[in-house]
Design goal:
With 274 residues, the chain is α/β, with parallel strands linked by helices. The chain contains ten helices and eight strands. The radius of gyration is 19 Å and the shape is globular.
């Protein structure tokens, strides 16, 4: 009987230990994959020193055709990379929107390792770089899936003039519970809370207004429940919610119409920061 109990205990504990030990592999599956960041077509490559990670390569494009257009900083999802961000936003760049396709530590040949802290540091550094590169422009930050967490961080701390959330989640712990409902004590096991809705509420309680926000959700999302995007939109006063007719994840990547919606929304926010 004692042996049976030990075996049952090991069977119960093994998945929990695996999740604890390997969560970075689950949360950041595309790290160390893909080709190094490289210039191509309208996209130029730059490197930026990010505290705790080193010099990170990323892409940017500027058609220089619309001097009043906002600058778009794109923070991609965990299964994506800067080169794909560039493909998804090339139509915006050609329409006159300067675009910065950020790349994370440990992705596309970059040094460092991805984490909640390093993604925040990367977002902060690249937002500052974009401000210096295009002074006097509004900075729009687009967070795609896991990128929504550092994007919300920038907006909630006054580092962004405009916020776009594509297939965003309320928190990483809540998302893990959706996919692993049997896992106990997720809040204790998860080293990367990425609690966007808490950041929004904390900013509002502190008297800091969230910037104009566009939230994009798909008709059916197999990764992040659509209800999470709806909850984020509801938490941000005056936000705009776009419901894509496309089913998938994320919206910008799979729905060309959503890119037109984004371009029109950005076009309505020309001019210097308020």
């Amino acid at each position: 009987m004692r042996l049976v109990l030990i075996v049952l205990l090991l069977v119960a504990v093994a998945p929990v230990v695996t999740v604890w030990a390997m969560q970075e592999r689950f949360l950041f599956p595309a790290r160390h994959n893909g080709q190094p960041v490289a210039a191509a077509g309208i996209w130029q490559m730059e490197r930026l020193e990010v505290p705790g990670s080193g010099r990170l390569a990323f892409l940017f494009a500027d058609a220089a055709t619309d001097p009043g257009a906002p600058v778009l900083l794109f923070l991609h999802g965990n299964g994506s990379r800067a080169a794909w961000s560039a493909m998804d936003t090339e139509s915006l760049a050609r329409a006159g929107i300067p675009v910065v396709a950020a790349e994370y530590p440990g992705y596309s040949g970059n040094p460092g390792a991805p984490s909640e802290a390093s993604l925040r540091a990367t977002a902060e550094a690249m937002a500052a770089w974009a401000r210096a590169r295009w002074p006097g422009r509004r900075l729009a930050v687009l967070g795609e899936s896991i990128g929504s967490a550092p994007a919300i961080h920038l907006a909630a701390t006054g580092r962004a003039d405009l916020l776009v959330i594509d297939s965003g989640f309320t928190s990483m712990s809540a998302t893990i519970r959706v996919h692993l409902p049997w896992l106990p004590a997720v809040g204790l096991l998860n080293r990367h809370p990425m609690d966007g809705i808490a950041a929004i509420r904390a900013a509002i309680r502190a008297g800091r207004s969230m910037p104009p926000t566009l939230v994009m959700v798909s008709a059916a999302d197999p990764v992040v429940p659509t209800a999470m995007g709806e909850a984020l939109a509801a938490a941000i006063p005056g936000s705009t919610l776009h419901r894509s007719g496309w089913s998938g994840h994320p919206v910008i990547h799979g729905d060309p119409r959503a890119r037109e919606v984004l371009l029109d929304w950005l076009a309505g926010h020309h001019g210097p920061p308020a």
